[in-house]
């Protein structure tokens, strides 16, 4: 199995400049390859340029511009061209599926923040030796950069990526390692219901409160963004203000990931089977469609957009997608089973008599069955129904 490690780098001033130039030159290569594809399709009888053709031109490009393109790794430049090719592949796939196409766009230097090295030892080298207290990673034309390695890397390093996040630099390692031993069986199963009022409710009646990290940091973020809006463009003061805004977002993201890791680890340790809702988060967070007023052309009727915007912010703040991704990865490593079920009517179906009605849930928290008068917390009822649906699906698959 593959596992990714992310470590903070400590480059010197000169190395920071060189890393920035590496991103700039790879961004230039990406934009140039995109321009070639656009021109070939528009002006040369709608000809499509493929990755193989552009990769074959790299030797000439490096010889023509040795100062900007010739000094970087050949494999990393191939990875950049492959990145563009994947963007076009996804573009044509969305067209065939009838989705919004999203044609690949040119990248600004500030938004091109990652360079990948497909192989360890080709343009980069992960240098982690047990007897050396200082870990370094070597990049071609940059040198040996110090790394804050806070945990050991298990397995063989396959690919290395360098990423810029604000003023910080990170190295990402994809290591191939053997499948770990599964955790001992507990004989317990659980269903979980994700929400906004409570982050998680389980079928045993337990709750995990919603930390609401983004809401708690809203005041600091507003102050940082207001200070940014008052800065002159391309000034040193604006650069510092941008970093302050980025640091607030970075802290919220790390808090959310830390909470997701701890919550997922608790579920994986305690239960053999975890059933959850198969949520379509993108559809749930869409803005409501406008309602034209038939009596007043050019005006619109109220459609609840303000309330929906607040709900969308709460959904994004909860981070359901991040949590489910982390939970799935931990379950796979621990030998646990994840079951996704249809979320429709899970909070409206009575777990005692099976009656399903909208009136069964009069409020956000309360569940009261109109058929058998069963009362419970609505999120707990949803988790129970998710567990039963998951176990039924599991039995059907085993049969």
Number of separate structural domains: 2
Number of strands: 16
C-alpha termini separation: 29 Å
- The amount of helix comes to 40-55%
In round numbers, the mean pLDDT is 93
Can you walk through the features of this model?
This protein has 399 residues and is α+β, with helices and mostly antiparallel strands. The chain folds into two domains: 2-176, no CATH class; 189-398, no CATH class. Helices cover 43% and strands 20% of the residues. It has eleven helices and 16 strands. It has helices at 13-43, 51-56, 58-64, 74-96, 213-216, 218-229, 236-270, 281-284, 305-318, 320-334, 378-398, and strands spanning 2-10, 114-117, 124-127, 135-139, 143-148, 156-165, 168-176, 189-194, 198-202, 207-209, 273-277, 291-292, 300-301, 337-341, 366-368, 375-377. The strands form four sheets. It has a seven-stranded antiparallel sheet with strand order 2-6-7-1-5-4-3. It is globular. 24% of the residues are buried.
Descriptive terms for the model:
alpha+beta; 2 domains; 7-stranded antiparallel beta sheet; 43% helix
Summarize the structure.
This protein is α+β, with helices and mostly antiparallel strands. It contains 11 helices and 16 strands. Helix 1 crosses helix 4, helix 6 runs antiparallel to helix 7 and helix 7 packs across helix 10.
